[in-house]
Amino acid sequence: MLDFKNILSLFQSRTASAYINNTIWLLLEKLVRLFVAFIAEVIVARYLGVFDYGLWSYVMAINFALLALCTLGLDGILVREFVKQPSLTDKLLGSAFISRLIVSAIVMLILLLSMVFFQKDMLMLMIVIMSFSLLFHCFSVIDQLFQSRVQSKFVVFSSIISVSLGACLKLFLVFISAPVFCFALAYVSEIFILSLGYLYFNRRFGMPINNWSFSTPIAKSLLRDSWPLILSGVAISINMRVDQFMLKGFLGLEAVGMYASAVRILDLAVMLPHLISRSIFPYFVKLKEVDENTFYRRMSIAYKVFAVAMGSFAIILYFLAEYIVDLFYGAQYIDSVNVLRVGCIAIFLSSFAALNSVYLRVMNEQHKIMNRQWVNVILNLFLNVVLINRYGFLGAMYSTVISLFISTIVYDLFDSDLKVMNRVKFKIVGG
Fold this sequence. Notes:
This protein has helices spanning 4-9, 14-70, 74-84, 89-117, 122-137, 141-148, 153-175, 182-204, 216-250, 253-290, 292-328, 337-362, 366-391, 393-413, 419-425, 427-430. By secondary structure, the chain is mostly helical.
């Protein structure tokens, strides 16, 4: 059972209150962003139809995987270093930004050369167009700075403005019956506007980009800590979208469109525990340094709250699945209902995955995050081959849930170094 006195203890200190306030701002931004983007996406899906929506979703999946590579796994590392070494802020910003920019430029060049010499079709054109967003995403280092200072509300506005303008642009494209590649241009425009917002607030609070400086030792130090997270991030992105890659190969783009409609709804729920955990990460970094016993106790409380909240949400979504799909996507996507229902299990498991990541990053055990993610990827690849052939696009969701359960719950039981984390985590069962 939940002990509400212990839960309230999580919120009593002034420091904790600051993180709660920061979390509320992040939740507000994410909820508005997800709602606006989801409504626009639903209208786009209805306009494009199952096949072209499958093409659009497939291109987004590829861009998502490339973004995971180009961010270099630095998000959590930067937040941690900004907290620990505030005097090095300008060098941390400059080193992380330049490192990301170089990798993004290399990826763009490879894609452009691939289109010129090998594959000249609509799919490759959209991938190349979307790759320009990788350059603008480099400015997200500013977001990590504001997170570390528990001041996320100052970048919430730029995020809401960018997604709102991006949604308006997509609706305009639907209104004029634009071809599918134009939606790639709309996405790049949205990320460009977001980057301008980051730069505005960065300058407003006395941290202009011209003060940033690149430091080779700092860049090497960041990459030395983040390389497991680079591989982990790539593994996560592959794992989250490998089902769509394989569905295209086995069943075609129409199956990708059907499957992606359910995944889009699931993403709204799965993102919530990861968003909250990202906001409270600096809090647990400081708490671990000040009072280790309190750190373990409050991590256990967080596991309990996350599990109950996401489990309850998953049950509600399961019973409303058919109504939700019909309401938003219409009859042409009704076959995705069972995919959504099976995916509700992943919503519950995501609460464990999010806090596992917090715990391991606080402990500087990034390589363990990488290991579990690659276990997840390998399992998912194997299960997709077996289950897609037998169950169609529903088999892709079966494989996602099974591999997530094994990598998030079962894997930890066989890692002797994680005995303490398991005791903390499984107190949600014992109370």
